[in-house]
Structures are given as C-alpha cells and as structure tokens.
Amino acid sequence: MRPANILTAITDIMAGIAIAGFLTNGLQDVQGVLQVICLAIAAIGLYGGGVVFNDVFDAALDRVERPERPIPSGVVSRTQATVLGIYLLLLGILAAFSVGEWPGGLATGVAVSALVYNKWGKHNALLGPLNMGLCRGLNLLMGMSILPEALAVHGWLAFVPILYIAAITMISRDEVHGGKKRTLYRAAIGYGAVYAIILAEAVKQHRLAEVVPYLLVFIWLIMRPLLRAIREPVGPNIGKAVKGGIIGLIAMNAAWVAAFAIFPYPLIVLAFLPLSFLLSRAFAVT
C-alpha cells in the first residue's frame, strides 16, 4: 500500500480543499470536519488500492526484477492482494460519495484511471506518464469538489500535478536499469514549469511571501536527488530522484495551501513530511 506515499495523497486532498476556499470557514462545525476526514479516507483507499493493483498486474515481472515485493516473495498471494485492492478502491469511492456526488464521481475516475494505468497505461511511453498524472490531478479535483463551484474557477490547476507526476513517471521507468540524461533533463523542465505556475498563482493571490518558504523546501527535496541522477544516471540514483519527487509532493501541496489558506494550515500539511520520511525507511516508495 506504500504508506509513505499515501500521506502524499492525503495532502493532495488538503491542497484541493484549500484551493476551493473551504478552509476559510468550512472547519467551524462538525459537518465540515467530517467531510474533510471522509475525503482523506477516500484518498487513502484510492491510492492504496491503486498501488496494490500495481503489484497484482506486475507480479510476473516482479519475480524477475523485484523479487523482494510482497507477491513474488510469497508474503501474500496474488488472490489476497486482489481482494485487498478491490476493498481499498471501494472504500475510497464510498467515502467520497458520502461527501457528495462530485467527490464520488471524481473518486470513481481516480480508481478507473489507476486500473487503466496498471493494466495498460504503464506500457505506453507517451500516454503512461500522462495517465499516472491524471490520477493525481483527479485527486486534487476531488479535494476541490468539497465546494463543487470551485471546480469551474480553479479546476485548471489539476494540470500542475498531471505535469509533475508525468515527469516523475517518465524517469521512474529507468530506476531498475539506469537511464539517459535526456529524460532527466526533460523532467527538470517539467519541474520548472510547476515552480512557475505555483509562483504565478501565489502572486495572483497576493501571498507570495507566504508561499516562497514552502516552495523552497519543495525545490530542495526534488532537485537535489535529480541533479545527482543527472550527473550519474544509474538505477539507484534515479530511484532516489523518484522517491524525492514523490515525497516532495507534500511540500508542493503545502505551497498550494499557503497560497489559498491562512497559517497554520500550510504548516500542518508540511508536518506530514517527517512522518513520510520515517515511513519511507520501513516501506518501499517505488
């Protein structure tokens, strides 16, 4: 289920909720708090189910390339993993529908996109990264849909995680056998576009000073391992760049929250970072 990664999915929801403007006055009653909790549960189920099915569909390949994973190592059977994956995806969809039709519909879209990626998308060099990015984009929209009217105004921001995750997915293909610097440079360009959009939105919201500290943390987390991989594009270095990119999502989402919500909400989101680092030592990230 990749516990360290699941925390990043929860912060996607928090970013979407902040962008929608819900944190301004939505947490003043129990109903608002319960809606946020249900969307967080939805993110846990959808992400967990998605990566479980990743292992289900890749079981044969993992016996060769990653025999330490749960299915090829014999910790669980493929059937047990399939049951767990179905349970988690249904949990995510039902939790989202408990908030409303828009969240439920978007959660269904996340589940379908994850399954399409795991079965077919990952095998396509062009569409695969975009397919994986779509899962994150829909996750952000699911958070925004806590106030459905926000989707028409800010829904285009889902393009940012789509671009960002597409860049990470593109380089992750080389983490086993190593890769080419050209792919890493393309990822760096994609990262730069993400920085630019976040900065532009911070200026638009008149919150540049609030956003910059979180953006700097984000840049440090993802660029340090990426530059190391560019210097020496071997499998372990690329794996670290992918890991940094995934966990760095927490800092990126904290920057989004800083652009749309008051303190201490962005700091609360950033507080997921050390916990994610701890979990990444015990559980695989990629």
UniProtKB/TrEMBL annotation:
Claim: Ribonucleoprotein is one of the keywords in the record: no
Keyword Transmembrane helix: yes
Compartments in which it is found: Membrane
Source taxon at top rank: Bacteria
Gene3D superfamilies assigned: UbiA prenyltransferase
Membrane topology value: Multi-pass membrane protein
Keywords, ordered alphabetically: Cell membrane, Membrane, Transmembrane, Transmembrane helix
CDD domains for the chain: PT_UbiA_1
Transmembrane segments: 7-27, 33-54, 75-96, 153-171, 183-200, 212-230, 242-261
NCBIfam families: prenyl_rel_EboC
Name recorded for this polypeptide: Polyprenyltransferase
Species this chain originates from: Chitinophaga alhagiae
